[in-house]
Write a structure and sequence with these properties.
41% of the residues lie in helices and 18% in strands. It has 212 residues and is an alpha+beta fold. It has two domains: 69 residues, Orthogonal Bundle (Arc Repressor Mutant, subunit A), CATH 1.10.10.10; 116 residues, CBS-domain (Roll). The strands form three sheets. Strands 3-4-5-6 form a four-stranded mixed β-sheet. A hairpin with a 3-residue loop joins strand 1 and strand 2. Helix 5 crosses helix 6. The radius of gyration is 20 Å and the shape is elongated.
């Protein structure tokens, strides 16, 4: 069993919560001059390892106990929402040309396509766009819904899903990213983007936390 070894930032967070808890993630981020999103993986690891407790609408407080958590237990507790990135969303009527521009501007590999109700309809990958660029001159005329991969064949995940399950979907379906969604009665609302890079980062933070 490998004992938890905290990195410098996690140590600082623990100190802040010990002295000021209960304190919200937002307030911790402010003290460290970082964004809440940047702190999310650290807070997840500290909570999962038993150093911190979190109560909805109250915040984080020091639990006082030092639980020994194995790396495999920690891994099973990682959630999609702690590692996801911001989604880049385009309308199904956007032209292929504009989608290519968007891909460069936003520096992502995959665009998610929505209808005018903002519900997930499809996915556009780098190669979807490249294939169309080779095959046609009409990039400024073709809307992306003609070439995208579409529902119901889109593989997605939810914020609360275990990261390991989402990682398996990425590998089994051989795709680079999954939309992170809220399931509503009317359709799927996109709230994030889970990529192979996110999973790789989680893998590294797990190794660092456990001093592997
Ligand atoms: P690339 O095509 O650039 O290699 P991917 O491996 O992500 O990128 O995509 C492969 C194919 O799978 C593309 O046609 C893409 O539209 C589709 N695709 C990508 N992500 C998903 C997903 N989450 N669900 C279903 N299909 C997807």
């Amino acid at each position: 069993m490998s004992p938890i070894e905290l990195n410098k930032r996690q140590d600082t967070i623990l100190q802040i919560v010990k002295e000021n808890g209960p304190i919200t993630g937002e307030q911790i981020a402010e003290r460290l001059n970082l964004t809440r999103a940047t702190l999310r993986p650290d807070l997840a690891i500290l909570t999962m390892a038993g150093f911190l407790d979190a109560r909805p609408r109250v915040g984080y407080f020091y639990s006082g106990k030092k639980t020994m958590t194995t790396a495999s237990e920690s891994m099973m507790n990682l959630k999609v929402g702690d590692f996801q990135s911001l989604p880049v969303v385009v309308s199904e009527n956007m032209t292929v040309y504009d989608a290519i521009v968007q891909l460069f501007l936003e520096d992502v590999g995959t665009l998610f396509v929505v209808d005018d109700q903002s519900h997930l309809q499809g996915v556009l990958s780098r190669k979807d766009l490249l294939r169309t660029s080779i095959g046609t001159q009409e990039l400024t005329k073709i809307p992306v819904h003609i070439i995208m991969s579409r529902m119901p064949n889109i593989v997605y995940c939810k914020k609360t899903d275990p990261l390991i399950g989402a990682a398996k979907k990425l590998i089994e379906r051989q795709v680079d990213s999954l939309p992170v969604v809220n399931e509503t009665e009317k359709g799927l609302e996109i709230v994030g983007r889970l990529t192979k890079t996110n999973v790789t980062k989680a893998f590294i933070s797990l190794a660092e936390t456990h001093d592997l």
